Amino acid sequence: MERLICTGKEGDFLVIGDQEFNHLKALRVKKGDRLEVFCEGRLFLSVLLSIEKGYALCKPLEEIDIPLPEPEVNLYQCVPLELKLMEEVIDRASQTGVNLLIPVVCKRGFQRLSIVEEKLERWKKLSLASFKQCKRPKPMQIGRPIRLSEIEAKEEVPLVLDNFSAEADVKSLELTKKSYGVLVGPEGGLSVEEVELLRSKGFKPLFLRPYVLRTEMAGAVATALIMNLAGKG
Ligand code: SAH
Questions:
Q1: Whether the predicted model's global pTM rises above the 0.85 cut
Q2: Number of domains forming the structure of the chain
Q3: Residue 29 needs a FRET pair 20 to 30 A away by CA distance; which of 35, 116, 123, 225 works?
Q4: Residues 58 and 14 sit within 8 Å (Cβ to Cβ)
């Protein structure tokens, strides 16, 4: 079933306007067709009531409240020097099942926190676009950007993806836990000091076979492996 994002409400009805209206027209849905409409953080099975000039009205029939899959994977992604690469990171992370993405400012990555903060709105829009495409129950959240030195992982199993520690592979992971944190370095990798700091904060190294992956690939591969090997639901 097609999924759209509401742009407002009119009484009990959900309004599909602006770009979402263009999307609706491109999908060629007709009056009476059923749609999933995401509105104010909730997803509704809805029926298309009417198509007006520039917007459409939908009637919500029932809330679709699917539990999130387990385990929870949160991605601590060092912001790449090439900032635009974050868009690939977001799309892939969302598709593979990341719950929360936290942009991290690292030594060899993009440095300016204020510019990263300005990007948040665009990144949240991309997360919503991916939510429509991959039919996850909730959009991937994007957290406030932080510096690597500030990280305090709250997950049961915090991991740092480390292409130098070939002894710690996926097979040695404990795959029975409820939450995993995955930290990914930028294009130029993490510095030795950063890896040391993360280890002192409880992050365990994880190596992905067999080759060195690009930063925009590594987090998605780790997430897909964890979701499928440790996953339920
Ligand atoms: N330029 C670096 C590679 C950086 S790849 C080098 O030459 O080593 C960017 C990030 O992706 C790394 O910091 C690491 O966190 C992750 N990564 C890439 N490939 C990986 C692998 N095979 N195993 C674990 N982590 C990997």
A1: yes
A2: 2
A3: 123
A4: yes
